[in-house]
Amino acid sequence: MEGPREIWDKEAGQNGTLANCYGVTKDPTSNYMFVMKYYDNHDLYSYLIKINKFLSFKNIVEMLWDITGGLEHLHGNKLIHGNIHWGNILINEIVINNDIELVEARIADVGMHGPVDKKNSNESCRVHPFIAPEILKGLTPTIASDIYSLGMIMWALSAGFRPWGNWIHDHNLATKICSGLHPEITEGIPNVYITLMKQCLDPDPSKRPTVLQLIDTLEIWNQVYSD
């Protein structure tokens, strides 16, 4: 049976939908680590600080298309990520004549969680604002909880800063998320974007869209905003 590392190599690595992984190494403490491609713009967190909110809607759609494509390969192979946040979305910016022509986004930390039917108790490395409410309540990560995390990525892309930025990542924030609330939506965002984001953030996991439904919508957006 293939594991997450093999799926990464065979499926996503060949078509560029996930962050490039060159191999696996082991540090002196016996922890395994992936050897990754170096991305000049680091992660989404660093990139949003660098550009200071100046991100066109076209660039947002490009990045979502990439991220969703990576997620589709995981879910299509019955794998979950389980810990999507802006620190493991790696960014590559293509600049021509001082203009940003393309912003590529790749999901990293793949293979740390595994099959959809595998329980994982590694809670310590998860980032509160991006965690689905059902996970904060103690349930196992699922494909639907990955979609919630993607919804929070959508929020961060549209706002340009950290979700729940004024809140300490503690029990109070977890309680707020579990109650079904999400950060205030930034003004000036297209209604179609807001609608899709709210669907991803639905407190009921069964009501969130699948990754294939997201791809269908983003494909239309890509056609509209690529001109």
Which secondary structure elements does this structure contain, and how are they paired or packed?
Blueprint (H helix, E strand, L loop, with lengths): L3 H12 L5 E6 L5 E5 L7 H8 L5 H20 L2 E2 L8 E8 L2 E9 L6 E2 L17 H4 L6 H17 L11 H8 L12 H10 L10 H15 L2
Helix pairs in contact: 3-5, 3-8, 5-7
- Summarize model confidence as the mean pLDDT: 80
Question: How much β-strand is present in the residues?
Answer: 5-15%
Structural class: alpha+beta
Strand order of the largest sheet: 1-2
Low-confidence stretches: 121-125
The helix count comes to: 8
- Alpha carbon gap, first and last residue: 44 Å
Give the overall shape: globular
Percent of residues in helices: 40-55%
How many strands?
Answer: 6
Radius of gyration: 17 Å
Keywords:
globular, 17965_t:CDS:1, alpha+beta, 8 helices, Ser/Thr_Kinases-Pseudokinases, two-stranded antiparallel sheet, protein serine/threonine kinase activity, two-stranded antiparallel ribbon, 227 residues, Prot_kinase_dom
